[in-house]
Automatic annotation (TrEMBL):
<dbReference type="GO" id="GO:0016556">
    <property type="term" value="P:mRNA modification"/>
</dbReference>
<dbReference type="InterPro" id="IPR046960">
    <property type="entry name" value="PPR_At4g14850-like_plant"/>
</dbReference>
<dbReference type="GO" id="GO:0005737">
    <property type="term" value="C:cytoplasm"/>
</dbReference>
<protein>
    <recommendedName>
        <fullName>Pentatricopeptide repeat-containing protein</fullName>
    </recommendedName>
</protein>
<feature type="repeat" description="PPR">
    <location>
        <begin position="340"/>
        <end position="374"/>
    </location>
</feature>
<dbReference type="InterPro" id="IPR002885">
    <property type="entry name" value="PPR_rpt"/>
</dbReference>
<feature type="repeat" description="PPR">
    <location>
        <begin position="144"/>
        <end position="178"/>
    </location>
</feature>
<dbReference type="InterPro" id="IPR046848">
    <property type="entry name" value="E_motif"/>
</dbReference>
<dbReference type="Pfam" id="PF01535">
    <property type="entry name" value="PPR"/>
</dbReference>
<dbReference type="InterPro" id="IPR011990">
    <property type="entry name" value="TPR-like_helical_dom_sf"/>
</dbReference>
<dbReference type="Pfam" id="PF13041">
    <property type="entry name" value="PPR_2"/>
</dbReference>
<feature type="repeat" description="PPR">
    <location>
        <begin position="206"/>
        <end position="236"/>
    </location>
</feature>
<dbReference type="Pfam" id="PF20431">
    <property type="entry name" value="E_motif"/>
</dbReference>
<feature type="repeat" description="PPR">
    <location>
        <begin position="237"/>
        <end position="271"/>
    </location>
</feature>
<comment type="similarity">
    <text>Belongs to the PPR family. PCMP-E subfamily.</text>
</comment>
<feature type="repeat" description="PPR">
    <location>
        <begin position="477"/>
        <end position="511"/>
    </location>
</feature>
<keyword id="KW-0677">Repeat</keyword>
């Protein structure tokens, strides 16, 4: 026990606390307890604090705590735990430090340690986490599994896998939380091989560990390993199906993602928002208009809110990829009452994809009129629209506006849009100045934009330099050699064309054949240059 409750007679006000189900019901009881001095009793105050925390009113619990003279560790534990699970996890760290300095019963602190460590992980505050670790050692709590699991989880979340693994290896006994914390932590920092080794060593696997591995393999592009785990699982929940669908979508196996989603529905499993977002992205990738409209009807017919979980944004993106801008716009207008920044970003992106630059600019202006703050993605979509629409002055204005008005630092994609804009217009000097001004290293996409534009405008010398830069960054990229070869051919420099093709053979660089696909009667037909059509019936 954390502390001994004082005896307390039955009281109708105290009994009311258990009947309250919301903060609005608790407040009158709270006021009555203040008026009758019931908060001076530890038991009564503890009950009220717990009731506030359980109803989601952790700020109310803190108010009660601040008004109690004879505060104890249980009260602190309740409020600390509430804040660690709220939108203000940092408050848990403040309260823990206050508790340690205010109370003398160090043995009672251990009950709050897992919640404090969880808060450290959420706010990525490893400094406080290390201090708590020191208190764990000082208090000889290394044998407490709950405390050790909290430490492992905290170190994993702040990216210190080595420390987490050391603690894990020193544990005399481990439970599923210990194993899963290590596996999820390894996957979070991309240590897939280490996660798999732990997964294989687990005495007993559960849904959490299997789902984590499927998700991790999907994010690193290893769909085959994700499939292997998925197919060997005896029990699956909605997270399992979502993880596998997302893995297919991330790995570019869009057809499999759509088919698995349909299988999920046949089995009577209601999809969650992440599964819907993934399958909409997959449908957009294969540009299946028929399945896209079927999916839209499914969402409306099964009570899914287009404003929840970015579903509306994903639906807009899907229609845009399928070339249906009007349908995308209809979805956008239908989520008008709960439209978020993601919905605006998707609609501006849809207009950008189809070269509707002026419309995208007007959409952005309408967004600002709604007093919504644009983010990095908003400006990326807007600059892309300006690039595709040839709106040079507008792009220059919004690039500066992003920095000066909204204090958003450009990332490499923003610079890439500006470089692409200048290259499309043949303004190579502007493009070079933009490249020189970049605070980060230029990527291959920027140089490819210069190379493609050099071919269009017949700028051989500029194109040669760009091709050299691409080859330095991605030497195995066959597209770079093809563009440079076409540039030489356009200039009539056939000797360089022959030398370049010989160089490709020596380096083992092969031209990637063109490929396209189309859905006919529910089946995906793929067409590759030099091969017979391939039909995937699913």
């Amino acid at each position: 026990m954390i502390y001994a409750f004082q005896s307390f007679p039955a009281n109708p006000t105290i009994e009311l606390i258990d009947k309250c189900k919301s903060m609005s019901e608790l407040r009158p009881v709270h006021a009555r307890m203040i008026k009758t001095n019931l908060l001076n009793h530890t038991f009564a105050a503890s009950r009220l604090i717990a009731a506030y925390a359980q109803s989601g009113g952790v700020s109310g619990a803190l108010t009660v705590l601040r008004g109690v003279e004879d505060v104890n560790a249980f009260m602190y534990f309740t409020v600390i735990k509430g804040f660690s699970e709220s939108w203000e996890p940092f408050q848990s760290l403040v309260l823990y430090a206050e508790m340690v300095s205010r109370l003398e019963d160090c043995g009672a602190f251990k009950f709050s340690i897992p919640s404090v460590l969880a808060a450290c992980g959420r706010v990525l505050e490893d400094g406080v986490g290390r201090q708590v670790h020191g208190q764990v050692v000082k208090g000889s709590l290394q044998c407490d599994m709950f405390v050790m699991n909290g430490l492992i989880r905290m170190y994993c979340e702040v990216g210190q896998i080595g420390v987490a693994r050391m603690l894990f290896d020193k544990m005399l006994s481990r439970d599923l939380i210990s194993w899963n914390s290590m596996i999820v932590g390894c996957l979070r920092v991309g240590e897939v091989a280490l996660a798999r080794a732990l997964f294989d060593d687990m005495p007993l696997r559960d849904l959490v560990s299997c789902n984590a591995m499927i998700d991790g393999y999907g994010k690193c592009g290893d769909c085959k390993s994700a499939e292997q785990i998925f197919n060997t699982m005896e029990a699956k929940d909605v997270v399992t199906w979502t993880s596998m669908i997302s893995a297919y979508a991330l790995c570019g196996q869009s057809r499999k993602a759509v088919d698995l989603f349909k299988e999920m529905l046949i089995l009577g499993i209601r999809p969650d928002a992440p599964a819907i977002v993934s399958v909409l992205a997959a449908i957009g990738d294969v540009e299946s208009v028929e399945e896209g409209k079927w999916m839209h009807a499914f969402l409306l017919g099964n009570g899914f809110c287009l404003s929840d979980g970015f579903i509306g944004s994903a639906l807009i993106d899907m229609y845009a990829k399928c070339g249906l801008v009007e349908e995308a716009y209809d979805v956008f207008r239908n989520v008008s009452f709960k439209r978020n920044v993601g919905d605006w970003n998707s609609m501006i992106s849809a207009l950008a994809i189809h070269g509707l630059g002026q419309e995208a600019v007007r959409m952005f202006q309408e967004m600002e009129g709604m007093e919504l703050a644009p983010d990095k993605i908003t400006f990326l979509a807007l600059l892309t629209a300006c690039s595709h629409g040839g709106l040079i002055e507008e792009a220059q204005f919004y690039f500066e506006y992003m920095v000066e008005k909204h204090k958003i630092s450009p990332v490499i994609q923003h610079y890439g849009c500006m470089i692409d804009l200048y290259c499309r217009a043949g303004l190579f000097e502007n493009a070079n100045r933009m490249i020189d001004s970049m605070p980060m290293k230029t990527d291959d996409l920027a140089w490819k934009a210069v190379l493609s534009a050099s071919l269009r405008y017949g700028k051989t010398e500029i194109g040669e330099n760009a091709a050299h830069q691409v080859a330095r960054l991605v030497p195995e990229d066959s597209g770079n050699y093809v563009l440079l070869s076409n540039l030489y051919a356009k200039a009539g420099r056939w000797e360089e064309v022959a030398k370049l093709r010989s160089s490709m053979k020596l380096k083992g660089v092969k031209k990637v054949p063109g490929c396209s696909s189309v859905v006919i009667d529910g089946a995906l037909h793929e067409f590759t240059v030099g091969k017979e059509a391939k039909r995937d019936s699913g």
